[in-house]
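[SOLVED] Need 3D model of a two-part complex

Original post:
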Amino acid sequence: MGFDFSLVIPRMGLFLDGALVTVETSAMALLFGSILGVVVGILRVVPLKPLQVLAACYIYVIRGTPALTQLFFIYFGLPSLGINLSGMASGVLGLSLNSAGYVGEIVRGGIEGVPAGQWEASRVLGLSYAKSMRFVILPQAVRSMLPAFGNEFVTLIKESSLLSTLAITELTMAGQQVRSVTYASFETFIVVGAIYLALTSITGFGLRFVEKKWNVV
Amino acid sequence: MFRKLAFAVVMASIAAWASSGAALAGSLADKDVLTVGTEGTYPPYEYYDESNTLTGFDMELIVKVGEKLGKEVKIVDMAFDGLIPALLTNKIDVIAAALNSTEERKQRVDFSDVYDIADSAIVVKSDNDSIKSLEDLEGKIVGVQLGTTEDIFLGRQDIKYEIKRYQKTDDAIREVILGRNDGVLIGTFVGNSYIDSDRFKGALKTAFRVEVNKQDEGFSLAIRKGDPQFLEALNSALRELADSGEIQALKKKYRMD
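Solution:
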């Protein structure tokens, strides 16, 4: 069983094009997922029962079902309701909604981790609930959330491989294409895996840098 | 020192384990059960009927071949682009999946004699009159099944269209109906099956036909290289089925004539 990378290496351009799509989709999903996730996380702690329940239900469904099922539902299922999104739109939407469920829990954890004394102090100083949240609690919560947040980006890079099932030529699909003409499975997935590892490593280093700058312990 | 030694032992065992797969496989002629790989969204060659049973021309053919050879046939449904890798790694013994015996594939697997040949077609929405030739696909989105000869053909053309690749042909077809893709390049009889199916009746049509494969690169059964004994048995079974008119009867049944 010999290995022959000479079939795979000349197709490096395909892999790199795919990797670019992987980075783009994960970055977009991180952006939208974070915005929605912060909203979900805050709703989870606001002292209004219906909103708390709503956010809890969202997290419950998102975390209780596979991301692949969610993507299939958006891409193949929603057209039955007249919502017909392209593969790319479905993919980014699906990953964002999925990520928001997890970010929501990170944000809730971060907010609840801020000592109660901070709340009491800001209320005593006459700040409204919204203002306390905005100026006192969230800035402190964000710092402690950062490491978990970074993990979420790494997770997204890996989960974006699911988009290959929506006919999006990201890194995994690029690998499948190369494999379908070279039949060199071992070599192809070694290269694909190495590129993913490079992407997640770079992300990891970047995050550690930011954490240091922000003095997160 | 100990670490280096441990590392060497681990690597050596991995190498031994990796190479044992190839050594294990003797001639298929000695096996009682043939594991046959296919991809089950390719009517009329292989598809699931109303009772969710895998059927079709290839499926009936391989069962008949199994009977001739006195072997039980066990069918496994997998992704089309994974078929040859699965064969090479001994996960399946035979591929019966309307697989064209192309030069590229011949370098990896052995093919039986050709049992059928068909051209391909661009299938579009029935109200689409703007696509009549490959050139008309410029700037359009064309779907195709991943790893098929149609996929390779599309990639070789000098026309600027976007190619969307799917694991399953029914997804590629559905994209055309939903209007997300303009057309799909698919085997002619496969396209006809979808066009005539109750589910998609009236929604699709053939825009034009394309000669994707060479005449001598028709559909064949594939096995691992280096098993001339079994290849000969396979070919003689196919010849007998052709001489008895059974293959022709199957083609008629599945409207492939």
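Edit: The interface with chain A takes residues 18-19, 21-22, 81, 84-85, 88-89, 104-105, 108, 143, 146-147, 151-152, 164-167, 171, 174-175, 178-180 of chain B (CB under 8 Å).
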